[in-house]
Each structure stands twice: as C-alpha cells, then as structure tokens.
Design a protein that fits this description.
about 170 residues; Four Helix Bundle (Hemerythrin (Met), subunit A); mainly alpha; two-stranded antiparallel ribbon
Length: about 170
C-alpha cells in the first residue's frame, strides 16, 4: 500500500479506542505478566506508547520540517516507561495515551503536509537518512506492531493451558 496521510490518520485515531476496548477492566495478571525475563508486560507496552507520543513521531516530524541545517533524530529511551509508569494504573495510562494521541493528531493535521514535505529528510542514528513519509508510515506500523505484541503477551499467559490445541495457535509458537 502506498503511503497516504488520510489512511495513516485512520489507524492513529483508532488505536486508543482499540486498546481501551481490549484492556479496560481486565485483571492484573493479564496486564502485568510478561513473556519472561527482559520482555515487556502490557503495562510496559502502553507506557512505551506514551513515551513515543511525547518524544517520537510528532517531535521528529517537527524536526524534519524545521529550517535548521542539522536534522539528526534523538534516540528514543526504550526504558523510560519503567520510571514514568510508577504509581499509575493501566486505566490512567490508557487515558493519558488517548489524550496525547488526540493532541498529536491535531498537530499532525495542522502541519497541512504536501508531497514535498513528505520527502524532507533527517538522519536517524541507527538507520541513516529517512524521509517524513517513511516516519509517518512507521508510526502506523509501530501502533500495529505493539497491538500484536499485546495480543501475543496475553495469549502466552495460556500457552500451557491450551494443551494440544497449541498446534493450531501460531501466536503461541
């Protein structure tokens, strides 16, 4: 599929409601268990999405669109959610994510991007030159990646309980 801003916004707008429907009022085991040492729980993943709303896609879009000569993207802190999530509930995180996402979509649409804007570039510290269209397409894929990750983390909680049906459940392999 070719990148189109309106298709990007479709997914970005729906992600908070999808997460809310999937996760609101479920028991703590679903929320706080992970897949083993060094992996993230659902709670951690939602926290990561919040970090990205604050420091990733809109911040990077602003940098790419800026007139400055140096356009090097700062790395994302992949562990910031562990400190930021302290003292919060999943419900609080879902509300925060929804509010930040609404504001970021408002900002994205306010840029009134054209085809030339989407070709503007910056340097990513690990992958090199990228353009704004690629960054915005990545925002959608990032959402979908973490939705799939949440489903997998939750499904893995029943890996042993499904018994021989594991043969039919690719998510558990």
């Amino acid at each position: 599929m070719k990148f189109e801003l309106n298709k990007t916004v479709e997914i970005l707008e729906h992600t908070p409601a999808m997460l809310y429907a999937m996760l609101q009022n479920i028991s703590g085991e679903w929320v706080h268990n992970n897949e083993g040492q060094g992996t993230w729980s659902v709670f951690d993943i939602i926290g990561h999405l919040i970090v990205c709303e604050k420091t990733d896609f809109i911040t990077r879009t602003e940098l790419i669109l800026a007139d400055s000569a140096v356009k090097t993207l700062a790395p994302i802190d992949m562990y910031a959610q562990f400190e930021n999530n302290k003292g919060k509930t999943l419900s609080m995180l879902l509300i925060e994510f929804e509010q930040l996402r609404k504001e970021n979509i408002r900002k994205l649409l306010a840029f009134d991007l054209n085809d030339d804007d989407l070709q503007k570039t910056a340097i990513h510290p690990k992958i090199g030159t990228l353009n704004l269209g690629e960054l915005l397409a990545t925002w959608v894929a990032h959402d979908l990646n973490h939705i799939a990750q949440i489903a997998r983390v939750m499904a893995m909680q029943y890996k042993d309980a499904v018994g021989p049906f594991i043969e039919f459940l690719g998510i558990l392999k």
